[in-house]
Amino acid sequence: MPLHIEKGDITTYPTDAIVNAANRTLLGGGGVDGAIHRAAGPELLEECKTLGGCETGEAKITKGYRLPAKYVIHTPGPIWYGGTRGEAERLCASYYNSLRLAEEHDCASVAFPSISTGVYHFPLDLAAPIALETILSFLETAKCVRDVTMVCFDDKTLAAYEKALQALQGK
Ligand code: ADP
Fold first, then answer.
1. Fewer Cβ in 10 A, N or C end of the chain?
2. pLDDT tens digit string along 88-100?
3. Distance 21 CA to ligand 1 centre (A)
4. Which residue's alpha carbon is nearest to atom 8 within ligand 1?
């Protein structure tokens, strides 16, 4: 199975790329964004300053600096406003555009955090199937990316992604 769901800290993953649930400034923040910048060192912020921010659902790539991963793919996921402002489509776009960039940079392995389900408050039970369906459909035609890990930081997140995967496999 090329898709894995694990509990862990994404800053420790030696994959070709890790994805950062960033904000639109790309200048760092709390949550996983803060953890990635702390682990990568100040050179990451210096490169991010040259990128001019990023729209919601788009993605930009940098080097990984002191991280074990070669690249960081930064994507601002949508803030949850109740579901009527295209949040689902934008979350799907964050995963898809991150995978597209990984493919363009010849990455075989990619690790994702649970985008938007922290301070952006996207409901976990809605986010998990969107994430997994987008990843699985991308893997069907990917040329380079062949191993994707969803890195869940806590038990609640892990349970939501495991449940969503079971539901998809039961289809
Ligand atoms: P967002 O603003 O997109 O909601 P957050 O960083 O607030 O982003 O949360 C996204 C998810 O990342 C949450 O499930 C949070 O628990 C998780 N997270 C926080 N730190 C890490 C880490 N070091 N590794 C993996 N996931 C993390």
1. C
2. 999 999 999 999 9
3. 7
4. 118
Residue pair 169/5 in contact (Cβ under 8 Å)? The answer is no
Residue-wise pLDDT tens digits, 156-165: 999 999 999 9
Q: Which two tokens stand for residue 114?
A: 């649970």
User: Active-site residues: which are they?
Assistant: 33
pTM beyond 0.85: yes
d(CA 103, CA 168): 24
Q: Kindly state the helix (H) or strand (E) to which residue 34 belongs, with its residue range.
A: helix 31-40
Question: And the tokens for 135?
Answer: 């990843």
Position in ligand 1 atom list of the atom nearest CA 122: 4
- Residues having CB within 6 Å of any atom of ligand 1: 9-11, 21, 31-33, 35, 77, 113-120, 151, 153-154, 157
| Ligand 1 midpoint to CA 116 (Å) | 8
One-character DSSP codes across 5-73: EEES-GGG--SSEEEEEE-TT-S--SHHHHHHHHHH-HHHHHHHHTTT---TT--EEEE-TTSSSSEEE
Task: Name, in order, each residue with C-beta under 8 angstroms of 166's C-beta and a sequence gap of 6 or more.
Answer: none
Instruction: Note whether 81 and 47 are within 8 A (CB).
Output: no
Mean pLDDT of 120-134: 98
